[in-house]
């Protein structure tokens, strides 16, 4: 019971984080690029990537706590996990970099940064599907 | 105890007993190959298994010499062992939970591949 609750609550954080990293970036870009509130969305995306990284680690820690083992992943799942981790770290750093330096950037550069953030979100979500079903 | 409370007491006892039955530990059986069997590397070798995952298990991973080679979502069936190298091999079936963590329920057999 407590084990399922731990996994489920971690999954809640992970799912909302996934929705925010992609949704936040897409909302800034689509249907038309909007510069107002961009920093607010950058904060949302930064926190969401942080939540993704933390909850991802928490999945491993939950398994370690209840079974003394980490999830047993095959080669495709491991590759998908590496892609997810890479996307999360890059997304977190890019959002942070924008928040630190973004005020000096022109519209084109800001737009490009959010396109990259959206692509990283989509990449992580795609990799998550492979991680889920090739394990 | 008043006789009219007997059905209530029985129902309560039944409900309390339910979690105990749910705590069955589960079981993994490898029907084939038998432990100690000799396999021909050129044959189509199948691992035949039957799994009761218990309350914590979800699906099954197959291993050859500790390397994961397959993910099985059917709890009873067979798995084609592809290209087994010759020599002594350890074949294992492990029950894992939804997070793909082995829950300690497993069965292994040693075979010799020629």
Please give a handful of descriptors for the protein shown.
heterodimer, A: 135 residues, mainly alpha, Four Helix Bundle (Hemerythrin (Met), subunit A), elongated, B: 114 residues, mainly beta, Immunoglobulin-like, 5-stranded mixed β-sheet, 3-stranded antiparallel β-sheet, 8 strands, 15% helix
3D architecture notes:
- The complex is a heterodimer of chains A (135) and B (114).
- Chain A is mainly alpha-helical.
- Chain A has a single domain (2-133), classed as Up-down Bundle (Four Helix Bundle (Hemerythrin (Met), subunit A)).
- Chain A contains four helices and no strands.
- In chain A, helix 1 (2-29) runs antiparallel to helix 2 (38-67) and helix 3 (75-101) runs antiparallel to helix 4 (107-133).
- The two termini of chain A are 23 Å apart.
- With 114 residues, chain B is mainly beta.
- Chain B has one domain (24-113): Immunoglobulin-like.
- In chain B, strand 4 (59-64) and strand 5 (67-72) form a beta hairpin.
- The termini of chain B are far apart.
- The relative contact order of chain B is 0.23.
- The chains are: A mainly alpha (135), B mainly beta (114).
- The A-B interface holds A 3, 7, 59, 62-63, 66-67, 69-74, 77, 134-135 and B 56, 61, 68, 71, 94, 96-104.
Question: What's the helix and strand layout?
Answer:
The complex is a heterodimer of chains A (135) and B (114).
Chain A: H1 2-29, H2 38-67, H3 75-101, H4 107-133
Chain B: H1 6-22, E1 27-32, E2 38-39, E3 45-52, E4 59-64, E5 67-72, E6 76-81, E7 87-96, E8 102-113
Parallel strand pairs in B: 2-8
Antiparallel strand pairs in B: 1-3, 3-6, 4-5, 4-7, 7-8
